[in-house]
Write the structure tokens for this entry.
Amino acid sequence: VINNIGRSASLYLVKNIFFFLLTILSLIFALPIPFGPAGLSVVNALTIGIPSFVLAMEPNKALVKGRFLPGVLYRALPAALTDLLLVLGLLVFYQVLELPEDSLRAAATAVMAVVGLWMVHRVSRPFTALRKVLLALMTLGVLAAFLFLRPWFNIPDFGRQGLAVSVVFALLAKPVMDWLSRGIEAVYALFLKTRSEWDI
């Protein structure tokens, strides 16, 4: 139960850390929050709610190792910081080029969905048949939401420029997350030299 809750909790913390940091930066620099509640709801359901429920309920007989909270933060930080960097990049890009605000909202929601799917991929390892099916269904759900169900979830039209920008930033999601993961691992390794009891 503890292992499963640790996997699920890291999915929730990604969004919480991301929005906490984005809100602070928005207050300091007067940046817009490029998300709508309906669009966030479908992204949260497909990258947090449903995956966390399935992962929390599956059988798990592995031994509990390390400390719970440091382990959850260690798994969640790369995806949360990836969300933050990519969304800030989108904000700067759209403001410099003076692109439509609706297109920005669609692009930011799409990027958050892609990062969320990569996070589900990460916490699902090692893969089982159930986890493979879960990831495939969530990916299909995200594609269906953006291709066919945008009016239902109040996700604006990307537009030609917005679609191109969204694809570029979505492709950056995995390399940025991998780079941040390596950086956090390096910092954590240094930290372990003095606090080895905090094994994750």
